[in-house]
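During the no-cost extension, the postdoctoral fellow (Dr. R.K.) reprocessed legacy sequence entries with the updated structure-token encoder. One reprocessed record is reproduced below for audit purposes.
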Amino acid sequence: MKLLTFTVQPNIPTPLKPLEELAHNMWISWNFDAVSLFIRLDYDAWMQCNQNPARLLGMVSQERFEEMAKDDSFLSSLNTVYGKFQKYLNSDPWYKDPADHPAVTGSIDPAGGNSVIAYFSMEYGLDVSLPIYSGGLGMLSGDHLKSASDLGLPLVGVGLLYRQGYFKQYLNADGFQQESYPENDWYNMPVRQCKNKEGEPIKISLQMGEPTVTAQIWEVKIGRTSLLLLDTNIPENSEENRQITAALYGGNRETRIQQEILLGIGGIRALRALGYTPVVTHMNEGHSAFLCFERIREMVSEKRLTVTEAIQALWPTNIFTTHTPVPAGNERFGIDLMQKYFNSLTAGTNMSWEHFLALGREYPDDSQEPFCMTILALKLSAYSNGVSELHGDVSRKMWQAIWSGVPEQEIPITYITNGVHCRHWVSHDMIDLLDRYFGPRFSEDPIYLDIWNRMDRISDEELWRTHERRKERLVAFVRDRLRQQMEARGVTGSQLAHAGEVLSPYTLTVSFARRFATYKRATLLFRDSDRLKKLLTDPERPIQIIFAGKAHPHDMPGKNLIKDIVHFASQPDVRSKIVFLENYDITMAKYLVSGSDLWLNTPRRPLEASGTSGMKAAINGVLNCSVLDGWWAEAYRPEVGWAIGSGEEYEDEEIQDEIETKALFDLLERDIVPTYYERGQDSLPREWIHRMKSSMHFIGKSFSSHRMLKEYTDMFYRPALDNAASFSKDDYQKARVTAAYIDRLARSWPQVAISNVGAEGVTSPTLKVGDRLSISATLTLGELTPEDVAVELYFGTINNNGDFEGPERMQMTAVDAGQQNPGNSPYRYSLTVTCNSTGRQGYTVRVLPQHANLVHPFLPGFMKWGA
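Re-encoded structure tokens follow.
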């Protein structure tokens, strides 16, 4: 049976037309006055449509539309909000210097086009109305795009349009997690199909093994920024290939590699199809790293570069952010799958099978090693980073084997700590208060983070009353959600009435909401159930706890943690004091991070890369109590919250859990609970409020996503845009020169050797401060010349393990080079240093690449040390 289809759109009266544009722009997600328009339009429909403004417009009756089109109050509010929206779109942004960056103007590409930074992520948490996210990675991606819009960056997001998104969670009668996968109706969501001038959907195609897969492109508007989403659920594809974009992180390993091919290679083609020129690419996690092959193919096929030249042209324009602090969490594919898709990935690149595999392996010659997407991204990106200071350290340690011989502290992976989009995550009640005291610059100049210095202008009374309102709303929300959960399980009568009695707006409220992975230790408090019950049921100073979060569908230990919490919460003496909320999403998160008193986080250090939920809580005045892991390791100070332990790491997990359980209870009993309940005659917890202000001030100023985007721009985006412009000049001459240098380096490196390292004239192993050492070494360079390499003295204090501690790097110079002709080595290098420190000192000599076109000299496989 052949169906003929068409699309029906709401018939919106002319005076209300701006509602349609607002409904299809995520700008409204951080502007509550815009959301209020849709609530006023039809409150019942707003609640039924899962707060989806695009869907709501299709649910409002024509009579209601006509009524509101004549309502002068509503029209006045609409015109005010729409004027604010237009002012935002047309305002002069922070990033406004395209003259300094030809890539931004489109002049970098000889064929023209709108040149952009292309940002790739597997998921995006923009709003509850667009369910294409699962957790922290998606939340970070969503805030990245919102902040890019605020700052006016020339950035476009790329992702996939999942027909089912991530699963919806519900619990059975025993408290065991179940999953459902409702279908998304994209024609009633804030996305729009990309169409050509003839009104036909714009599509791209790509090879995936034997079949050709076609994808249509959808667009989400986020203020000034666009997000492109690829969708294979179209008639041109087989039923199997229509399932590629069925579910986020769904299917088997083959589905996963197909999704990542579509995201990477298809994403680049989608940008091209819409007229964008992706001159810089930012891979948010390794899922999209196949995009590198598509960029190489374009260079080889269209610019007539060799594969080595293409890599050198693109390496300085690729940016990679890793989020995973454990090796097992990084995407790896077996060689059988890679062989099946090898031609699809590399067609048109002239890349050999061996070269291809080497790009995805720590040890290129290990034929048993699977292909790792993180390694591919690291090797083909000049700029790489972790997402907190601690995670940068962990990442350098994790991937040190890629850069054999490079000291851990010099591994070219830096860090940019995550941040959150404040106006999206701060509750509208608190935003109203901050706007009143911070002034218009708070909304109009988001990069001016010193605005948070004005927290002291807000009185304790006003801050606490605002927090109390948020807490009352949280309790009402929890009761309503719990009632819905119980009704769905068939609960009736007195048991159902219990939902209206849980929690109290006057009790210290602790929230734990995050993905239920075992390393996050959601049940740490349950290790001492008697002590926990004593806290929950204290007649004078009780606490109450809200839990929320999803376990991965295949994570049975994570599901069992949820079941344990539900069983504990069902005990009569605590069942009004502890609840588990199903189906954690953005809406629930907003209530929790704005209405709780304490945000609890108990990861097993150092397994949390960053975390952002605690930041969202902090900028709402919710205090953090956390293990010193991820972002909290650099954010913690006594005036903004509490630390569980002092940053220790343990080999024995049982001992760690026991120690940190006791530490957490000690904090609660001796400090947190007394501080919250210590009230003066005015019934205000002054010390608690002081900490709230300190937390909002420091976290708002230091952990904003605008700070994060500014760091990405200064450290990565501007240099990468400059590189794109520079390397494309003169028919990619820089790329050709650099590739020739790399080829020469690879041929000669086996012959490079360092010998005769020593200090002249030293007759005693004991020296004095101020003594000078003249250190020399002999180098064999093969075909290379002294201009091709950097020869460095590595000098400094030696610790008890025989390792350098904070060594100095000093460039040595060639003082005697024989005939000074390539191949006629050896060369003699020398440097004189002064002994400035006491204690055990040491030195050695190393050689590494040196070329003006390299972003950094730490190329995998190219470093040698003196014997």
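The radius of gyration is 29 Å. Residues 14-90 form one domain. The remaining legacy entries will be reprocessed before the final report is submitted.
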